[in-house]
Amino acid sequence: MKTQADGFKRILEVLDLLEIRYQVVGSLASSMHGIPRATMDVDLVVNLRPDQIEEFAATLKADFYADPEMIKEALGRQRSFNFIHYASAFKFDIFPLLEDDYSQTQFGRRQFAETTSLGDPIECVVATAEDTILNKLRWYRTGGETSERQWNDLRGILQVSGSRLDLAYLNTWAPRLGVADLLERLLHEGTPPRH
Questions:
Q1: How is domain 4-127 classified at the architecture level of CATH?
Q2: What is the spatial distance between Cα 122 and Cα 174, in angstroms, rounded to a whole number?
Q3: Could you state, in order of their start, the residue ranges of all structural domains in the chain?
Q4: I want to staple 103 with a disulfide (CB 3.0 to 4.6 A). Which of 98, 115, 126, 158 is the partner?
Q5: pLDDT digits over 118-166, tens only?
Q6: pTM > 0.90: yes or no
Q7: Bridge partners of 90?
Q8: Where are the alpha helices (DSSP H) in the chain?
Q9: Which residues, including other chains, have CB under 8 Å from residue 146's CB and lie 6 or more apart?
């Protein structure tokens, strides 16, 4: 249980054991759909019920700093919390599954994929390329549209997964999420000039 990959495998094992549904989001998801890059943490959306918190934290506590009271408080406020993997000091940010239409829709679309971003090949459930784009566009906007890293992640997804993207889905949700202009800019940027 020494590496970041070991920490990730252990979290996935416990989620599976306790039948807690999840999806990988953030930079690990964009690396899976786009151009891989080093990441400082792993972001997961989990469908964690209040009655599962104690067992979840207790099962992880040998390998992670996991405070059940902090988790309860965060979930009560619909906020994220994190686990720190002792052996690698790697951080796992856990976001609660929200009730809004978009959160529920994207969670219903998640898919199995394999990642090698942390070294070892690991199979996990990940947000789709389209939902990763929509989420990254939201984070980019929320962050003041200044993060070159976020925009490069978006370019990478377009470069690798562009031909397979469901544009109708993207164009349905982008206006509802307030990022239609950013989506248009991204798609325009990714279109090679015609001669």
A1: 2-Layer Sandwich (3.30)
A2: 30
A3: 4-127, 130-189
A4: 98
A5: 888 999 999 999 999 999 999 999 999 998 999 999 999 999 998 899 9
A6: yes
A7: 85
A8: 4-17, 26-33, 53-60, 68-76, 101-109, 129-142, 148-161, 167-176, 180-189
A9: none
